[in-house]
Amino acid sequence: xxxxxxxxxxxxxxxxxxxxxxxxxxxxxxxxxxxxxxxxxxxxxxxxxxxxxxxxxxxxxxxxxxxxxxxxxxxxxxxxxxxxxxxxxxxxxxxxxxxxxxxxxxxxxxxxxxxxxxxxxxxxxxxxxxxxxxxxxxxxxxxxxxxxxxxxxxxxxxxxxxxxxxxxxxxxxxxxxxxxxxxxxxxxxxxxxxxxxxxxxxxxxxxxxxxxxxxxxxxxxxxxxxxxxxxxxxxxxxxxxxxxxxxxxxxxxxxxxxxxxxxxxxxxxxxxxxxxxxxxxxxxxxxxxxxxxxxxxxxxxxxxxxxxxxxxxxxxxxxxxxxxxxxxxxxxxxxxxxxxxxxxxxxxxxxxxxxxxxxxxxxxxxxxxx
Length: 370
Prior knowledge:
Elements: E1 2-3, H1 15-26, H2 42-54, E2 62-65, H3 68-78, E3 86-90, H4 95-108, E4 111-115, H5 125-135, E5 139-143, H6 155-164, E6 168-172, H7 184-187, E7 191-195, E8 207-211, H8 249-264, H9 269-285, E9 289-291, E10 300-304, H10 310-321, E11 323-324, E12 326-328, H11 336-339, E13 344-348, H12 355-368
Parallel strand pairs: 1-11, 3-4, 3-5, 5-6, 6-7
Antiparallel strand pairs: 2-8, 7-8, 9-10, 10-13, 12-13
Helix pairs in contact: 1-8, 2-8, 3-4, 5-6, 9-12, 10-12
């Protein structure tokens, strides 16, 4: 099998990740606030390990939960947006942003504008600035990088422009954390959602939301916290305010192991980029139409093969060389009119993708042409 679906879930993981998950399942629960044996607070350890990765100082401002969708919902509903207030977003957003915003627009009368992307899948900074000054939105939300094309937005510039226009800023780091540098406090972001199972190399069922100190969200999920049980409402302090219910201790044990492994084995972005360039070149030579963003990007390649629907091509790739990839709209339907295609096949590399795997994937595309 040639696994090229890392933008969905990374694989393989470092061996220590599975070992940590298994050990956590085999041992008694360690969360003492819920009747466990307090040997080690894995959640606090994960928060501390995430601080340098996120570019933040206070681990308590990181609420941990099951995924980035959970985090984005906490942020979008927790800001308590009012009827008539504007939200500015991009056409590159994932459904985990699009659907909550559509719901807020339909139910509450929140007004939303989705800025179109260029043919690479990113919104120009100048267009972002113009829309901010025109709308004066309450919230500006953008994905750090498109999950369809890999094109990264100028996060620092986007945040600065939004703050200058008086907007709160929510950044979706799902596609970039663990691969591209992130500096939330330096950027001036207010909120950032992330997941643990992509380029952080952790297990599925892990993610989180960072909230700027001084910003308080209305809890979107409420329930038990294991402490402060006398309160009729969720506690006011972070991270308890946003962490209702029992946490995924085994999953976060795996994420902690992944973070420790990554700190000891720095990512060679240049090597991954070389593989990405080789893949793009090979696909072009095979007759594919390849979307090739310039500038900063993640190791994602979206392409089409004339005359062959994406689903049929993906089936042929798996049957021919065992290539695992993604097809269709990739949960980001608004970006496709901007790209000028109805759907794509997506290959997404990882630090573990080999040159031989890239060559095999290209050969599979060539063979699929018949």
